[in-house]
Amino acid sequence: MTLSVIILLATGSSLLTIALNDNKSIPLGTFTTWTGMISLPLTIYWGANELREPSSKLNRILSEFLRIIIIFGILWVPISYLLAGNLSFTFSEKETFQGGQVAMRWFWRLSYGIGIGAILTLIIYWISLLFKKKKTVTNNV
């Protein structure tokens, strides 16, 4: 699921612009992206047992951080709707917050934050595995 969403978004597939309602205000891309916002951190969470059932302090912190990211992924559409005022998440040059430039910056921070936060958590977890393995090899010598 995660890989499919990444490919669709990276290629800018025309499937993302298919309208889901009669007045063409809700694109399929909204729900496709939402699926990705939830599935990326969930894939990492379910893919690493140590992040589901942490045994070390670092992994407990990473697990909690990942759970927060999952919650933000689940809330991505409602929060984004509040920021944009529409489900196509379009913004304008309005002076008001909702639908304006300030709201757009918060939208992008949320959107990138979910993806970057999930990947950063995975990278830190992998690095911790390298140090753990190195420590185990050193202790066995």
Write the layout of secondary structure elements.
Layout: H1 2-11, H2 28-47, H3 49-52, H4 57-74, H5 76-84, H6 101-140
Transmembrane segments: 31-48, 68-90, 110-131
Keywords: Membrane, Transmembrane, Transmembrane helix
Model description:
This protein has 141 residues and is an all-alpha fold. The chain has one domain. The protein is built from 6 helices and no strands. Helix 1 packs across helix 2. The longest helix is centred in the last third of the chain and has 40 residues. The protein is elongated, with a radius of gyration of 19 Å. The protein starts with a helix and ends with a helix.
What key phrases describe this protein's structure?
141 residues, mainly alpha
Short description:
This protein is mainly alpha-helical and 141 residues long.
**Coarse morphology:** elongated
- Our Rg estimate from Cα atoms comes to 19 Å
How widely separated are the two ends?
A: 43 Å
Biggest sheet details: none
Number of domains: 1
| Structural class determined from secondary elements | mainly alpha
Query: What is the residue-averaged pLDDT?
Result: 90
Put simply, the count of helices is 6
The level of helicity is over 70%
- Stretches where pLDDT is under 50 for at least 5 consecutive residues are none
What is the string of SSEs from the N terminus onward? HHHHHH
Let me know the number of strands: 0
Strand content: under 5%
Keywords: Membrane, Transmembrane, Transmembrane helix
Transmembrane segments: 31-48, 68-90, 110-131
